[in-house]
Each structure stands twice: as structure tokens, then as C-alpha cells.
Amino acid sequence: MENNLADSNIHVLLAEADGEIMAYVQGEVTSRSDYMPRNVGHVPLIYGVKQFKRKGVGRLLVKELCRFFSSNNAEHLTVRYIIGNKETESFWRKLGFESIITTSATYLKKLDFNLKAMAI
Known about the structure:
By secondary structure, the chain is of the alpha+beta class. The protein has helices at residues 2-6, 57-71, 86-94, 108-117; strands at residues 10-17, 20-31, 39-48, 76-79.
């Protein structure tokens, strides 16, 4: 986290009340010379403490994060979340995000085992 705070392409916001953390969000802008759009904003991390969810705190953090994206000429925004996390999916959908890519993962040992079982 310390390195992220020192990086000018990364912006971290924290919402707190009376010294208690309510939520936080991290945004990052990357520039690409070989793809369009050239400047892309990413939200790799957002977290809300359970008792503060559904109170508008996340929306306020995202709204503030958009200022960072805008000041860094981000033209397109992406977010990542775990498939099946209905609450998070609903949050982003209400803000206009649509799923366009599915990322799948496995452990190398499991892949190796499956490949051996298939006699490849």
C-alpha cells in the first residue's frame, strides 16, 4: 500500500467517520500507445465495511475517484470483481458498468494434472 500511495498514477481514497473506516477505493490510470482508448482508469480495489454498505459511501468514493481519472485523461474505466459476488456486481451495474471479459484462473499443479490425465 505504501508504494501505491507514492505512485502518481494510483489514487487511494478512504472514507471514515469518528476515526472508524467506512470504505476505501483504489484507482489507477494506465497509458497505452498501441491501443485505443489510450488512457484507461482501473478500479482494482474497493471495500466497504458491512455496517456502512448501502448508505452511499461507495458511490461518493467512486465519484471522487472519477475526478482523479478525469484529471489524468482517462477515457475508459474498468473494474474487477469475483464472479458470483452479486452485491458488487449490482453496485457497478447501477453505475453503468457492463461485463465484457471473464477471467478464469487455476493452479499450475491442477492444470498439469489435468493435462496429464488427457494424455496430451
